[in-house]
Write a structure and sequence with these properties.
single chain, alpha/beta, Rossmann fold, 5-stranded parallel beta sheet, 9 helices, binds BIS(adenosine)-5'-pentaphosphate
Length: about 210
C-alpha cells in the first residue's frame, strides 16, 4: 500500500498515519517531521526551510523533494508507505509520480472552524513525534511523552497567525489535488470529525 493523506492543517493526518502505519507494518513518512528534523539539526536545508515553516508557507519544492527522495530510498519504504504532507501542490504530485505510483489518496473531510483550537493546543514529542492535545488527547503526565518520557514541544507554527496562513495555502495550493486524484480513481474521502478510534476504522477500511 502506497498512500498519501490529504487534509487541512490539524485534520488529524499525522495522528491517523502513525496508527495506521503501525497496524499495516509500513513507514509513516511525514515531510513536516523530516523538515523539522533538518531544522533541529541546523543543517543547510533546515536553515533554508525554517523561515517558511514558521510563517506557515510552503517550503520550496526542491528542498522538500530532496528530503523526501532520501527517505523513500531507505529500504523500509520498498514495502509501502503512508505519506503525510506530500504532495502539497500539483508540481509535487507530478514529481512523486516520477518516483513511485500511489494506490490511494485519503482525504480527511473536516470542519475547518474547529481546527484552530486543536492546533493551538497540540503538543508533540520531540523524539518520536507522537501527537498529543492538551484538551482532547493529553499525556498521562503533563508535557511528557507516554511512550519515551521525552519533553513535549509546541510547534512554532501552531499560533493563530501562522495557522491562518497555513489554511490559506492549503485552499489555494493543496485542495486542487483532490480533483487530480479523483480523476485518477484513487481518491477516498473519509469523514474525519469524531473520535480518533472511529476515524482509524474508516482509514483502515479504505486501505485494505
Ligand atoms: P505539516 O507538519 O505537514 O503540517 P500540516 O499539514 O499543517 O498538518 P498538521 O501536522 O498541522 O496537522 P495534522 O493533520 O497532521 O494533524 P494532527 O494529527 O497533528 O507541515 C508543516 C510545515 O512544513 C508546512 O506549513 C510547510 O512549511 C512545511 N512542509 C511540510 N511538507 C511540505 C511540502 N510537501 N511542501 C512544502 N512545504 C512543506 O492533529 C492536530 C491536533 O488535533 C493534535 O493535537 C491532535 O492530538 C488533535 N486531534 C487529532 N485527531 C483528533 C480528533 N479526531 N479529535 C480531536 N482532536 C484530534
Amino acid at each position: 500500500m502506497r498512500a498519501t493523506f490529504i487534509g487541512p492543517p490539524g485534520a488529524g493526518k499525522g495522528t491517523q498515519a502513525m496508527m495506521a502505519a503501525k497496524t499495516l507494518g509500513i513507514p509513516h513518512l511525514s515531510t513536516g517531521d523530516l523538515l523539522r528534523e533538518e531544522v533541529q539539526h541546523a543543517s543547510k536545508l533546515g536553515l533554508e526551510a525554517q523561515g517558511y515553516m514558521k510563517a506557515g508557507k510552503l517550503v520550496p519544492d526542491s528542498l522538500v523533494l530532496a528530503v523526501l527522495r532520501a527517505r523513500l530510498a531507505r529500504p523500509d519504504a520498498t514495502r509501502g508507505f503512508i505519506l503525510d504532507g506530500y504532495p502539497r501542490n500539483l508540481d509535487q504530485a507530478k514529481e512523486l509520480e516520477r518516483m513511485v505510483a500511489l494506490d490511494r489518496a485519503i482525504y480527511f473531510e473536516v470542519n475547518i472552524e474547529e481546527l484552530v483550537t486543536r492546533l493551538v493546543e497540540r503538543r508533540t514529542c520531540a523524539t518520536c513525534h507522537r501527537v498529543y492535545n492538551r484538551k482532547t488527547q493529553p499525556p498521562r503526565v503533563p508535557d511528557v511523552c507516554d511512550d519515551d518520557g521525552s519533553a513535549l514541544v509546541h510547534r512554532p507554527d501552531d499560533n493563530r497567525e501562522a495557522v491562518t496562513t497555513r489554511f490559506e495555502v492549503y485552499q489555494k495550493e493543496t485542495a486542487p489535488l483532490l480533483s487530480y486524484y479523483q480523476r485518477q480513481g484513487i481518491l477516498r474521502t473519509i469523514p474525519a470529525m469524531g473520535s480518533v478510534k472511529d476515524i482509524q476504522v474508516r482509514v483502515l477500511s479504505e486501505m485494505r
